[in-house]
Hints:
The protein has 227 residues and is of the alpha+beta class. The chain has helices at 38-41, 88-95, 158-170, 176-195, 209-212; strands spanning 8-13, 25-30, 44-49, 70-73, 107-110, 113-115, 127-131, 151-153.
Amino acid sequence: xxxxxxxxxxxxxxxxxxxxxxxxxxxxxxxxxxxxxxxxxxxxxxxxxxxxxxxxxxxxxxxxxxxxxxxxxxxxxxxxxxxxxxxxxxxxxxxxxxxxxxxxxxxxxxxxxxxxxxxxxxxxxxxxxxxxxxxxxxxxxxxxxxxxxxxxxxxxxxxxxxxxxxxxxxxxxxxxxxxxxxxxxxxxxxxxxxxxxxxxxxxxxxxxxxxxxxxxxxxxxxxxxxx
Length: 227
């Protein structure tokens, strides 16, 4: 069993001969976040792609671009919503003090992701490159909750998943994921605000009609970088 330590760097050669990235390497970087539990942190990684088909050298890795594994709207910073002991207005006032770095269209970019299960089906051709502290991604958004939206991969499909993320997000070929995240956040926020006004003592919980009808999307159409 591989014992991954923070700042351990591994390389995995891309074996799909039909891929334009065939022969290059996925760089797998063990990391953690102090706000997450030990259970979650053991499977947290970031990723890069090698520039060519040469076996990557430790001293070259810092200059490589991180793969963006999740794109979401700035509204995500309000998730998860608080319990009934605090109103959304109070919650928003608190979270608004937290600095995040959306782009001009309101999107947040994340590179931190989880490999789960970590110790099942680890590739036998995984190459240990070394252990070094790399520069962190600039303006990365890390979900405040460890159960928030972050990339999650399995070893058996990690090659396709990382390439897909690179194509969709680094090369900005799709906007569907970011737009769906925005709609989800607007719906959840509106839902929570409606719940604050409901007297649950007068509601039969087998009748969900009133709650379901409270869902409302109030978003608009914006020009964005994924078009």
